[in-house]
Design a protein that fits this description.
- With 354 residues, the chain is of the alpha/beta class.
- Among the domains are: 129 residues, no CATH class; 105 residues, Aldolase class I (TIM Barrel, Alpha-Beta Barrel).
- It contains 16 helices and nine strands.
- The chain has a five-stranded mixed beta sheet with strand order 2-1-7-8-9, with helices on one face. A four-stranded parallel beta sheet has the order 3-4-5-6, with helices on one face.
- The relative contact order is 0.14.
- The structure holds iron/sulfur cluster.
Length: 354
């Protein structure tokens, strides 16, 4: 089994429209409690068998003592906490990082956790980027942060988050990233999960015809066009007929044996993928580590499908296809799973998210 633990140490200055972990303003953890909690987590992780990764979630640079948190985490669980397994890049909006007086010391602390660079997400021009992030400082922060990080010799990666805005503003995006010729670029199709935030994001989600406008414009910035157009081709209209034989149990069996947990700022431990909670297991500060470990060991993987739905209670795919017709949109999703989640959600099929 593979295990991923995401620890939410703080909130975010943004409330991004595509955010599947429900990021936004939230309290920062107390450093003293954090150290106690991670010391206990260390004993739990040693009892699990398999590959284990611990990540720090939300916008970590909003935490006033993030440097101490990173050093303490490296000290207490060195085998499990490292950015090497996450391609070495820490995602950030740049808003806090670029404004911190201790930003140089912060770079030293993240390097100790094998961070080799930072990933900055772009959604469109200034107006559209700030609309998606719901923070009027965020676009300028990306630029200032990218300049500063490059000046410090750090690697940066631009994560271009696909939406109608990103496509409409492509020329401006292209000019923006041209100022950073050494930066990596990647294109991300936002997930669909049955949450209020992602239901609202549908107004911005790119459709098949929007994506056609990117044809011939991606390869010259180092992004493989075929990846995007593969997704487009496997999208709703094209895939409907293929889905007739779709079996949830079979699909679940094809997924990786990978279990996800989230630890909140109050140190409550939840079973659930993508920052979504489906079961509370207990509290890291107050509950016995052996009991928590035992609960974790007995839980099945929650990579997809069963991470959000009781798969035994899902309507047969034939009835889903019948009920969602006629299709009025041709949204682009990152997988056929996300596409079907959006249909199930549109049919008000109950999910298991707390
Ligand atoms: S996408 Fe990231 S920065 Fe934006 S709200 Fe979510 S966790 Fe915070």
């Amino acid at each position: 089994m593979k295990y991923t633990f995401e620890i939410s140490v703080s909130g975010c200055e943004t409330e991004c429209a595509h955010c599947y972990v429900g990021g936004g303003r939230a309290a920062a953890v107390s450093f003293g409690d954090y150290v106690k909690a991670i010391a206990k987590l260390s004993g739990i992780l040693d009892k699990l068998e398999g590959e284990i990764h611990v990540t720090l979630g939300n916008e970590i640079f909003t935490h006033p003592r993030i440097s101490d948190i990173i050093y303490a985490t490296r000290e207490l669980i060195p085998d499990y906490y490292s950015y090497r397994g996450l391609s070495g890049f820490i995602p950030t909006t740049g808003i806090s990082l670029v404004n911190r007086k201790d930003r140089r010391e912060l770079l030293e602390s993240v390097k100790r956790a094998d961070c080799s660079g930072f990933m900055l997400t772009l959604h469109g021009d200034r107006e559209h980027h700030n609309t998606i992030t719901q923070n009027k400082l965020s676009f300028d922060a990306v630029k200032a942060c990218a300049k500063w990080l490059c000046g410090e010799g750090l690697d940066i990666k631009f994560n271009l988050m696909l939406s109608k805005f990103l496509i409409a503003d492509w020329q401006k995006i292209h000019e923006f990233i041209a100022d950073f010729p050494g930066a990596e670029k990647k294109l991300t199709i936002p997930l669909y999960l049955p949450t209020d935030r992602l239901r609202k994001f549908q107004r911005y989600r790119a459709e098949y015809d929007d994506c056609a406008r990117l044809s011939g414009k991606l390869e010259n910035i180092g992004i493989k066009e075929e990846n995007l157009f593969d997704n487009c081709e496997r999208n709703i209209y094209a895939k409907v007929n293929d889905c007739v034989c779709f079996d949830y149990a079979e699909e679940e069996n094809k997924l990786p044996e990978w279990t996800f947990f989230n630890i909140t700022q109050a140190f409550d431990v939840f079973y659930g993928n993508a920052g979504l909670h489906t079961r509370r297991l207990g509290n890291l500060l107050y509950d016995a580590p052996d009991e928590l470990a035992q609960k974790m060991i007995t839980l099945p993987a929650n990579y997809d499908w069963s991470a959000y739905y009781d798969t035994d209670k899902l309507p047969p795919i034939e009835s889903v296809l019948r009920d969602i017709k006629p299709l009025n949109t041709n949204f682009v999703y990152s997988s056929i799973h996300d596409c079907i989640y959006s249909w199930l959600d549109g049919m008000n099929v109950p999910n298991i998210i707390l």
